[in-house]
């Protein structure tokens, strides 16, 4: 792939010899590199006011437009020919030219802007480029120094003089040029300009009025009174002559530069003869005489120009004084006119204010008219709408009356059902109260299969644990838990009968009660605990807290601890020999619908010793720490108790609410004693009862706020209206439907009841007239409102 040639910009003026020399240097300097040449040519803006004719340089205004166009085309043609020769001189190196035209600023500023715009990295500039670009610019060397100082760092500037590279230097506020040997070849000297000289003449005009000096019209100015009109044409001619001579005159600084850039003449060789030295000296003397002669002529011309300039300055000064007097008079008149104008403006402003005020009043009246019209229209529309709304209200009232009557009828039906359910609950409570003895019932296999829907997977609560499966079922309209044993791998018939008999004799409010059993298949029917195990209440509540559920509050946890301690103490103090649980943990403690704790899963063998009892007490101590922290591992509490009370506050379970610090410390102390000492069950029971009594007193006295239990998806059936409970599932209904018997059931429950071949009512045991089910939207709405008030999400 070919590399792109680097561009070298060469700035060349109208001096052909200097231009070719500059191009030749650039081509030789980068002969070993792949480059392309861009020739920069700047048109002379000063030449726009003049044209070159066979008669010399004339002002452009003195030539007709047609001739001016022809002369401009000739000039452009000459420039194009010159640029073509420059391009041809480059030979095989790719070359192009870029014209800089119509610029108002000095050429050195234009060059700096061009460097920034084109990102020029290499710029070769001839020493005469600045001079040939504009006669109004500073000298060539001064312009070169300006570009050198203002250029960006990425641009390399190369100044060429006479085909050789020179270097710009600044020292002691002086600017000079050196060659590659360090020899100074040119120096910039500050000289007075024509503008400064003319200002000086104006400053001396007062002295010149007394002694005007010699001028072509001096006799006239002395013999006749001063009149500017007599000298207007002569002054204008003199001014045009100054402009013409100024444009033709070479810049004196440039002449000094060129003279200083010419190399000094070499000394005469020592081997020259006396005659040759004499001739050389004579030639030099002749040249000096010629220069002196020219300088004398220039001095005479300067004296004449000086006298004429003083004459012109004298006339201009007088004219300036006249104009100043007129201007002062005009300014005085202008002040008077300004005052009159201000007065007229004030009057005009007052008139405009009145007009504007009248317009505003008129607009206000029109706006009021439109507003009244809109209000009238709106009133008409509102009247028609009100009449329509009255008609709708009358119709709606009649509908509401009918709906009220219907709701009253439904209320009466619901009240009858509520009374029926209350009677049913009272009968159930009486039945359960009468069955608190040691009696238990043996159920048939058909009853067990009907209760569990033939051991349906939907009703299975637990599986694979100690060779048992636990199912949820209903027997005699009561929800029970059925623990099914593997008859092959676990117990013999005799062992099973002994276990049932022993369990039926263990009765305590905080131990799971046995309702009955079935010999084949081997299963034990236990009371059903609606709120599951304590482990789910403690640890699952934290996982479900993001869904808005609440965990057990601190008061409930203290009560549960006391209830567990009571049940465990009953087992340990049993006669004739203590019963040991052997695996006490939160999963072995179940909560009923009222969050009452009951223990299950204790061992029934009689091979116990004192160490087993102490093991149960240590497990109870660990359970207390779990109730305090809500964590499965409570080692942090042991460290916190050793440290201080503030550390204990940091590890308490936030889901329980604000723990009373005194009770938390006492409870943690009991736990630590259970873990570290041989604390007996009787002592622990007394201490736990004291803590519970203090907690009850705090809650009763209102000293501590307690959040309502019911988190962790628990339901307190004592607070649930009985009409919301499904008669089959004994749970709050989610989709209640009315059957032919007039009772509402959970849709899934009644469909299963009817799907298993039943054609009688689950409540009255009477035959149903039909099997159609109707959604009970009113009851569903009441259940939804009840859930909303309890902040329990309805799934």
From TrEMBL:
Role, per record: Functions as an E3 ubiquitin ligase.
Keywords associated with the record: Coiled coil, Transferase, Ubl conjugation pathway
Enzyme class, UniProt record, top EC level: transferase
Organism encoding this protein: Davidia involucrata (Dove tree)
Name recorded for this polypeptide: RING-type E3 ubiquitin transferase
PANTHER family linked to this entry: OS02G0152300 PROTEIN, U-BOX DOMAIN-CONTAINING PROTEIN 50-RELATED
Skewed-composition ranges (Acidic residues): 247-258
Domain of life: Eukaryota
Pathway this chain belongs to: Protein modification; protein ubiquitination
Occurrences of domain U-box (ranges): 719-793
